[in-house]
# Entry
Amino acid sequence: MADVRYYTDEHVVKAVAIGLRLRGVDVLTVPEAGLLGASDEEQLAFAFSEVRVIVTQDVDFLRLAALGMPHAGLVYAPQTTSVGQLVRTLMSIHSVMAAEDMVGVLEFI
# Structure
């Protein structure tokens, strides 16, 4: 079983990626992937191809998931979610789920 790997979109502050990395989690950000300005569909397709769970604060990803676009997992947090809460919740997911178990799963924080 593979560990969950994350992909944070443009709406998620870099401090979340830093916090996860300090805890040994594999996380990639949109700028690091060279996909700044790419469409949400392109972001979702990239994360799916890389088997990375998208971490987002953009409701447009919820619409794409509802339309049936395949994804390797999606974690949505409202803009009011603190960095600490987001990191703690993502660590909880990472500790109890395998990458294979997250495919097609939508988690709300």
The chain has a mean pLDDT of 95. Residues 83-96 form the longest helix (14 residues). The two ends are 24 Å apart (CA to CA).
